[in-house]
Amino acid sequence: MRLPIAFVSSTLVLLSALRVSAHIGPGFAMPESRDVVHHHLRSRGTNGRLMLRAAPSSESQESSEQDPSQECKPYGLKSSSALGKVYPKAGQIADIVSGDDTGATLFKEILDSGIIPGNVQVKKGTQGNMGIDQGQSDSYDDSDPDCWWTATGCTSPKHKQLSHDLDSCPEPNTWGLSFDDGPNCSHNAFYDFLQKEKLRATLFYIGTNVIDWPLQAQRGLTDGHDICVHTWSHHYTTTLSTSQVFSELYYTMRIIKDVIGVTPRCWRPPYGDVDDRVRAIATALGLRTIVWDHDTDDWNIVPGGKQSTAKIESNYQKIIDAGKNGSTADKGIMVLTHELTNQTMDMFMNEYSKVKAAYKNLVPISACMNASSPYVEDQPTYSNFADFTSGKVDAQGLPQPDAIKINVNSKLNITSEKDQKSAGGFSSASAKKSKTQGDSSSSSPDSQASAAPNSNKSSDKEDGNSASFTPIHVLSISMTAALVSFASWAL
Ligand SMILES: *[C@@H]1O[C@H](CO)[C@@H](O)[C@H](O)[C@H]1NC(C)=O
Ligand SMILES: *[C@@H]1O[C@H](CO)[C@@H](O)[C@H](O)[C@H]1NC(C)=O
Ligand SMILES: *[C@@H]1O[C@H](CO)[C@@H](O)[C@H](O)[C@H]1NC(C)=O
Ligand SMILES: *[C@@H]1O[C@H](CO)[C@@H](O)[C@H](O)[C@H]1NC(C)=O
Ligand SMILES: *[C@@H]1O[C@H](CO)[C@@H](O)[C@H](O)[C@H]1NC(C)=O
Ligand SMILES: *[C@@H]1O[C@H](CO)[C@@H](O)[C@H](O)[C@H]1NC(C)=O
Ligand SMILES: [Zn+2]
After folding, report:
1. Is the distance from CB of 335 to CB of 201 less than 8 angstroms?
2. Atom 2 (ligand 5) nearest CA
3. Which of 347-356, 359-368, 474-483 has the lowest mean pLDDT?
4. How far is the CA of 327 from the centre of ligand 1 (A)?
5. Is the Cβ atom of 453 under 6 angstroms away from ligand 6?
6. Which pTM was predicted?
7. What's the CA gap between 41 and 11, in Å, rounded?
8. For residue range 283-297, what is the model confidence (pLDDT) as tens digits?
9. What architecture is domain 1-491?
């Protein structure tokens, strides 16, 4: 089958500037190095006075830093070296860490449970699994037996026990707000802006970034956003072995639990690349799969990407227009935007007044889905849609910024997504409900307002092609040592 999406065709460029250590993330550049860190003085302007300070050791210290280059200076915490020993290497495809009996046992239990379909092929990757092989996709069966999103935009699994992916915000005139690829080290100006505007978002965090920038990750929670998993190393998950997919999800859940103190119940596949094998592993880990139905393509903005600022603005404008012309009057949207770079964050800040004028509500996905209890833990709790839109944007039971203790090797309490009966999560209970309501569970790929005019296939591709199938370039990120990878795509 010839797919109407872009496939990797050429180069992978690794720019290894910025960071020295290729094997240890910036968070570990100075393990056990409080002494060293204390000598590592940084300047910071406060009311016009120049102040010197040590590298941050608390969330509130880090959050008050206003200079992006200071924010992105590596720092070590007391816990850093201990964390480094029990996690996969930052930026590399995760697999079960040797000596991790808990992880190995959980993996075996999942295999033994039989939830993982045996007839879904591992897809062939290219360029270190930062792309999908064209031949693989050409030969993929038209009937889409794997519900492979990358090929067809499929969101309704073909295999049993798997929930429909969340791809839209059901509430009318509503923009489901989420930002992928964080925590970005230099996100303070952006998070300050979200605070000022009383905006809360769903943040899809990359495990490697959490381990590299633990204090920035804590801020996501303490600011009242809700946190979901975006894999350990941001590769095409359908190309990874079953133990790698397990590890990409499991270790990201665990680092979020260790560093932020909560266990997410939601994840988003990088590039949207998911099929029923991957969904099954996520389901077993208690994670609901979330994709999107409108794409700003902001990841591709210059200078990291290839699209002009004007082009990304026009992508935003189309989505803004959809809010104005009545096409979201029955059903809202879920928009793909990124915390990836200064430019993607600036873009949202610049577009926000127009977005706000066009949409009645801007809410995190938790509010879209009434997921008032988005974590395995009872606390914190978040507002449902009605409460959120009546002004109660603050989550309840959030930790104080500096009260979060990093725990190495927290125990996760894993309940399969299909068994998460209790209300308030992202669980299949709501999927079943929307199925019976027939609002978003058609077995054909979703045809949303943003779908390409001549196709019922995937049009919204994270870090991939958008509505127009012209050759573009893909920016992928490998966080180890802040490597930036560019994969070149063509039709
Ligand atoms: C509304 O605007 C969107 C985005 O420009 C467009 O795709 C859609 O067709 C428009 N719908 C109507 C009813 O005009
Ligand atoms: C964050 O944003 C800065 C500025 O655009 C960029 O240099 C950096 O690579 C980004 N990524 C992370 C993980 O912080
Ligand atoms: C982007 O960088 C500029 C220049 O350093 C800075 O003024 C601006 O606040 C940054 N934007 C964000 C969202 O961090
Ligand atoms: C959320 O709750 C409201 C009632 O407050 C209901 O109308 C809406 O359908 C619910 N949304 C979902 C996705 O269950
Ligand atoms: C684990 O979670 C389940 C529900 O998801 C709960 O019933 C059980 O008490 C939890 N176990 C622990 C040890 O917290
Ligand atoms: C949608 O996909 C189906 C199955 O691949 C195909 O038969 C049909 O022609 C497609 N429709 C459009 C409008 O492309
Ligand atoms: Zn991503």
Report:
1. no
2. 413
3. 474-483
4. 6
5. no
6. 0.82
7. 40
8. 999 999 999 999 999
9. Alpha-Beta Barrel (3.20)
